[in-house]
Automatic annotation (TrEMBL):
Residues of the XdhC Rossmann domain: 78-218
Species: Rhizobium meliloti (strain 1021)
Highest taxon of source: Bacteria
InterPro entries recorded: MoCofactor_Util/Proc, XdhC_Rossmann_dom
A Pfam family recorded for this sequence: XdhC_C
Transmembrane regions: none
Name of protein: XdhC Rossmann domain-containing protein
Length: 235
């Protein structure tokens, strides 16, 4: 691998950005693109495909054998609230390939005994997230039902472009949440990205079932997320 390509990949990894290396198997040349870079229009479809699937692809384009190798940041879930749903989600997330952290300032809930082996931060989200910023490969699940704890990370997740933002609560609860966020200056278009009530509608009742519904919705959002692929020559 060329040193310049390796440097691009290292920089992308450090900043938790996706990268694709396109190698021409006929002459051994390669080009690396970080998500958001301009790419040739004819490569847009395969680059989009590998960014969504996370799997490399070999294609013949214009009589050239091109290998598209993708490098994605490890997807992660940040759960706001050390609640029963978070306990179940923490057991499921690693099976699906997600890193996970739980943030909750309520020390009665945020205990190592309840979250053994899970990254647990017993502090307010507004004190944690500036030093541990959210990003496009993070899913945020707000699960406390407490606006004092949930609202800030929801707003931060929308601003950061998290691929998934979900919040626990009924439609009535979410309507009140929407009003609060609008008052705080969060754009209406961004608010529509919030999945509320959280999780796929599978009739979930128990915390474990809700966790399954939430994880399934997160996986769907990851595989169908918007990718930033400006074509060369675009303004």
């Amino acid at each position: 691998m060329e040193l310049s390509t390796l440097q691009i990949l290292n920089d992308a990894r450090a900043s938790r950005r996706a990268a694709v290396v396109v190698s021409d198997l006929s002459d051994g040349s390669s080009q690396a693109f970080v998500e958001g870079d301009r790419i040739p229009p004819e490569w847009a479809a395969p680059v989009s495909e590998v960014l969504h699937s996370g799997r490399p692809r070999l294609l013949n384009l214009e009589e050239r054998a091109l290998f598209f190798n993708v490098h994605l940041p490890p997807p992660r879930i940040v759960a706001i609230g050390a609640v029963h749903i978070s306990q179940a989600l923490a057991r499921l997330a690693p099976v699906a390939g997600f890193d996970m952290a739980v943030i909750d300032p309520r020390t009665a809930f945020a205990t190592a005994e309840r979250f053994h082996g899970v990254e647990l931060i017993a502090d307010w989200p507004e004190d944690v997230l500036p030093a541990r910023p959210l990003d496009r490969y993070t899913a945020l699940a707000a699960l406390t039902h407490d606006p004092k704890i949930d609202d800030y990370p929801i707003s931060a997740a929308l601003e950061a472009g998290c691929f998934y933002v979900g919040a626990l609560g009924s439609r009535k609860t979410h309507a009140a949440r929407t009003e609060r966020l609008q008052t705080q200056g969060v754009p209406g278009e961004a608010i529509t990205r919030i999945k509320a009530p959280i999780g796929l509608d599978i009739g979930a009742a128990s915390p474990a079932e809700i966790a399954v519904a939430v994880l399934a919705e997160i996986i769907g959002a990851l595989r169908r997320r918007d990718v930033n692929l400006p074509a060369e020559g675009a303004k």
